[in-house]
Sequence to fold (94 residues):
Amino acid sequence: HSFTQLQEVYVLQNIDTAKLKTYLFIDRRKIRKLNINTATYQELVAHPYIDAYLTKLILKHREKNGPIRDLDELQRITHAYPELMEKLRPYLVF
Fold:
């Protein structure tokens, strides 16, 4: 989604983002969005920003209360830190 995410890759952490922009480009049209209300356990846990604990909280809430309306509700359900929610924003649909 963004060049700053490349700093999460261990071998790219010390490379200047401006230099990476000369060799790489981001095609946001290729981002596959994950529907938080229909995704299976396997689909959720396969996402790099969603671990098994968050997945279980999401599935439990969906089963008990129905669909999740938006990112704010997802944060309330999971108690995830705001930075994680911002990382997830481009990858989720509700």
